[in-house]
From TrEMBL:
Protein name (database record): Conjugal transfer protein TraR
Zinc finger (dksA C4-type): 95-119
Chain residue ranges for the region called Disordered: 23-55, 122-187
Domain Zinc finger DksA/TraR C4-type: 90-118
SUPFAM superfamilies with a match to the protein in the record: DnaK suppressor protein DksA, alpha-hairpin domain (SSF109635), Glucocorticoid receptor-like (DNA-binding domain) (SSF57716)
Classification via PROSITE patterns: ZF_DKSA_2
InterPro entries with a match to the protein in the record: DnaK_N, YteA, Znf_DskA_TraR
Biased amino acid composition, Basic and acidic residues: 122-132, 147-156
Keyword annotations from UniProtKB, A to Z: Metal-binding, Zinc, Zinc-finger
Compositional bias segments (type: Polar residues): 32-45, 167-180
One MF annotation (Gene Ontology) recorded for this entry: zinc ion binding
TM segment ranges: none
Amino acid sequence: MTSITKQQYNELRQRLLSDQERLEQQLESHEGTNTNNSLRDSTGELSAADNHPADVGTEVFERGRDLAIQETLADELEQIRSALQRMDQGQYGTCAECGQEIPYERLEAIPYTAYCVEHSPRQDLSDNRPVEEDVITPPPSGAGVNRQREDGRFDDAGAWEAVEDYGTSTSPGMSTQPGQDDYKNNV
């Protein structure tokens, strides 16, 4: 055990036990979800053919989110159990990498940690880029020239001028002048 006081040690242990109980209850409540069933079984639909693709997409998103939440809770629960085991073995509060004492402030913030700040496994995003970026060819010469020429000079006031050359939703025989409606006059 490290140089943390007995009271601090007991507070951390109680917190870990409380968190363990909370996570076990949350995981139990999620056990009833249909994450192991097929999408058809979990939605109660006989077919997804009559559903809008966005509805199916929403269901897939919801299912993925539920799985990610369960995985995160299970991972945290495993780390808490490991911390409690380290407490029982008298190894709690020392870094698993270097053996140095983990400061109480860090244990208070993350009571299940097994590492000091210097040796904590990296939790950030990887700097590795997709292999596809190595084979992407540059755009042909002149691509985006118009966009680059107009870059930063387009505003709402010039929006109509920029799109009027492409036509309007009215037919060529209809007037585009405000207040005139040739369609009604021809009927």
